[in-house]
Amino acid sequence: MAHAHESNTKRIWYVFGLLSVITIVEVAFGIFKPESLHLTSFLGTSPLNWIFIILTIVKAYYIMWAFMHLEGEKSSFRWSIVGPLVFLILYLCFIVLIEGNYVYEVFNTGHMKWIF
Amino acid sequence: MGATVISHEDALDGGPGPLGATYGKMMMWFFILSDALTFSGFLAAYGFSRFKFIETWPIADEVFNHFPFMHGVDAPMYYVALMTFILIFSSVTMVLAVDAGHHMKKAKVAFYMFLTIIGGFIFLGSQAWEWKNFIKGEYGAVETRGGSILQFVNASGERVALADFAKVLHEERVQHTPDKGVWFMGESALPSYSVAEVVEGFKANPDVLVRTEFIKDKQKVVLTREESLKRLEDVVYVVEGANMYRNEYGSKLFANFFFFITGFHGFHVFSGVLLNVIVFFNVLLGTYEKRKSYEMVEKVGLYWHFVDLVWVFVFTFFYLV
């Protein structure tokens, strides 16, 4: 392997601490649900949900870069994995969630009752 | 082959190729890539259904609010947070095992692998407990002719279990089994109360109200007493807990997605534990010591971290958002 074999234990414990703190913050937000973040809407969903999603992506970044050691791989290798993932997932979510919202509109404004 | 134009023949012998990773590690990564896309397909499907039924979707922290040894206490999210910690921690021990492998420290690798396996088993046990609570249910609900779930609350909005108000009517109704019929027929187990018992009990308890599936200002709408009584005329089923057909939490798809996504993830954890056990014994036998490389620990480690990575997303989209 090209990358150095020095011990990474310090970095590992640092990342563990970071992931724990992020999880605690997420759970605290999830339990207390501050009204200004929970009941308002920003870009289609509440700011609270955006915070959850961003924190999740931060966690995913640290797991993939530090634990799965992508930071030590060649950048061509790293991006041949992360690139398709990011693009395809964003694309899938875009298509599928917009469609879901459209079906909701159809149910909501149509003449047929679907739940009563 | 003879005189071929391949100038980097060493790139094809399993050693580091043009991407700087060995063949095995690279294939593990591309397997993970495809598996990650499978999981994102599932989670996107969950998102689709949720957007489709955005007004009636169950609120997760009302469903998952159990904690071991704290019966009847409303503890939303604590348990899944604990499960997340267990999995993250087992990821840490895994990466420590990989790190020790780089230094060829056999005993340390074995010790950390062992901790990882224990963490995997604890997580699987926790998930089983979570499923048990989900399947058993807590309060019970009724379903109307039109497929809508009605739950019961008291005047201050707290959930009321069917057992708290249903009347016992001494009705003769036994479960129909194949051995009692003239034709081969059967039915699933009967709920603890019949529709009539729930409705009569509701009439006798003036402080119980019906709570619908509909969400307004992030809260489920509670009906008045008159509306509740009118609504109960349509009831056809008593629902306790969850199965693949209906569940007491609300939308039918909610339970289906819960079983499917957490089940598929749990299956991945289970296979991860199996792979870890195999590699653990190989470490003990000295296989990698002879091979002068602990790369197999690294490959299995990649898979194990991936399982953790998926859980991070399941945690967000099932329990938080």
**For this structure, what is the CATH homologous superfamily of the largest domain in chain B?**
Cytochrome c oxidase, subunit III, four-helix bundle
Tally of DSSP helical segments of chain A: 4
Helix content of chain A: over 70%
Assembly status: heterodimer
Mean pLDDT of chain B: 89
Describe this structure in words.
- The complex is a heterodimer of chains A (116) and B (321).
- Helices cover 72% and strands 0% of the residues of chain A.
- Chain A is built from 4 helices and no strands.
- In chain A, helix 1 packs antiparallel against helix 3.
- Chain B is elongated and about 75 Å long.
- In chain B, helix 1 packs antiparallel against helix 8, helix 1 runs parallel beside helix 10 and helix 3 runs antiparallel to helix 10.
- The longest helix of chain B is centred in the last third of the chain and has 34 residues, at 252-285.
- Chain B has 2 domains: 20-137 and 254-320, Four Helix Bundle (Hemerythrin (Met), subunit A); 141-240, no CATH class.
- In chain B, strand 1 and strand 2 (149-153) form a beta hairpin.
- Chain B is an alpha+beta fold and 321 residues long.
- Helices cover 55% and strands 8% of the residues of chain B.
